[in-house]
Amino acid sequence: MSNVVEINALHKCYGARKVLENVSLSLESGTIVGLLGPNGCGKTSMIKIIAGIIQDYEGQVLIDGRVPDEYTKSIVSYLPEKTYLGDNLRAKDALNFFEDFYSDFDKEKAKSMLSQFKLDPNQKIKSMSKGMQEKVQLILVMSRKAKVYLLDEPLGGLDPASRKAMLDIILNNYSEDAVVLLSTHLINDVERIFDRVIMVGEKRILVDDTVDNIREKNGKSVQELFEEVFKC
Amino acid sequence: MANDFSSNVPIYIQIMNEVKLKIVSGVWEAGQRLQSVRELAVEFSVNPNTMQKALSELEREGLLYTERTSGRYVSQDEEKIKKARDEMAEEYTGNYYNLMKKLGYKKEEIIYVVSNRLADIEKGGLKNE
């Protein structure tokens, strides 16, 4: 396993407001990592920096040894918090769109996942339920053969059955050559799929450890530790 | 399958217990070939590395074994499986005893409650409700 993402002394401000202060972390291939923290703690900023969307930051960010650029974008598969697929697209149009855009997109895999999760390729995305839309988007993103998957709050607002399906999609596509970074505040549902969790708060990393270490050292689940760390 | 992950036990140990239960109860038969780690990870809704660790530990305990080319199998050693089953039964019984002790029950009362309850369950057609 190698560190596919390396971040050293990262700072990020929006104007006078600091959102990340001296953040350092590394992400290993073959792991699924949870990025946890309350709203507004800088999770999305961190993800956007790794995705190469935010470029004005201070500090060092290396993806597969490179500063975010065209190359790193080609190996990073990013699921934003908000949908970006046009309303009039059918699921199959979105597949074609991804095929045109990304050379590492495996259309057959995406098709077979659509049918596995009982999604109709001919249905218009805007006529789908929120859960179905989220599944389609996750399938698109996970059907790329990337080295880094960034999933920003993919579980928010979904019913438990849809959340389970989303986790199945992620686990089905697990690869030893890739890291999955998933941000969420629904910890209980997903704790078991993480190797490691990173808790971010007050602009800094507060906890960075494996799930089993957290359980053994603290005698607490990740959810319980989270509640303690972020007690209001 | 829904797993109840209690909070202070490492998840891989909990997965080991889930898998053991499948083996000692015969849901997974002696000598049966296992699905891939990835498939099992999906079935147990758990990280593939955690699944791998649980399976390796069970291999060390001798309940599973790996054939280098063809995959991972349930042990064919019936004695070993029976022993694991007895150990689980002891553990469950110990847990039950501790809970009953917390309720203030004495040995005779526990035996009385158990045999009464079992009689009821059998009368009701083995329904454990």
Automatic annotation (TrEMBL), chain A:
<protein>
    <submittedName>
        <fullName>ABC transporter</fullName>
    </submittedName>
</protein>
<dbReference type="InterPro" id="IPR003439">
    <property type="entry name" value="ABC_transporter-like_ATP-bd"/>
</dbReference>
<dbReference type="GO" id="GO:0016887">
    <property type="term" value="F:ATP hydrolysis activity"/>
</dbReference>
<dbReference type="InterPro" id="IPR051782">
    <property type="entry name" value="ABC_Transporter_VariousFunc"/>
</dbReference>
<dbReference type="GO" id="GO:0005524">
    <property type="term" value="F:ATP binding"/>
</dbReference>
<keyword id="KW-0067">ATP-binding</keyword>
<dbReference type="InterPro" id="IPR003593">
    <property type="entry name" value="AAA+_ATPase"/>
</dbReference>
<keyword id="KW-0547">Nucleotide-binding</keyword>
<keyword id="KW-0813">Transport</keyword>
<feature type="domain" description="ABC transporter">
    <location>
        <begin position="5"/>
        <end position="227"/>
    </location>
</feature>
<dbReference type="InterPro" id="IPR027417">
    <property type="entry name" value="P-loop_NTPase"/>
</dbReference>
<dbReference type="Pfam" id="PF00005">
    <property type="entry name" value="ABC_tran"/>
</dbReference>
TrEMBL record, chain B:
<keyword id="KW-0238">DNA-binding</keyword>
<dbReference type="GO" id="GO:0003700">
    <property type="term" value="F:DNA-binding transcription factor activity"/>
</dbReference>
<dbReference type="Pfam" id="PF00392">
    <property type="entry name" value="GntR"/>
</dbReference>
<protein>
    <submittedName>
        <fullName>GntR family transcriptional regulator</fullName>
    </submittedName>
</protein>
<keyword id="KW-0805">Transcription regulation</keyword>
<dbReference type="InterPro" id="IPR000524">
    <property type="entry name" value="Tscrpt_reg_HTH_GntR"/>
</dbReference>
<dbReference type="GO" id="GO:0003677">
    <property type="term" value="F:DNA binding"/>
</dbReference>
<dbReference type="InterPro" id="IPR036388">
    <property type="entry name" value="WH-like_DNA-bd_sf"/>
</dbReference>
<dbReference type="InterPro" id="IPR036390">
    <property type="entry name" value="WH_DNA-bd_sf"/>
</dbReference>
<keyword id="KW-0804">Transcription</keyword>
<feature type="domain" description="HTH gntR-type">
    <location>
        <begin position="9"/>
        <end position="77"/>
    </location>
</feature>
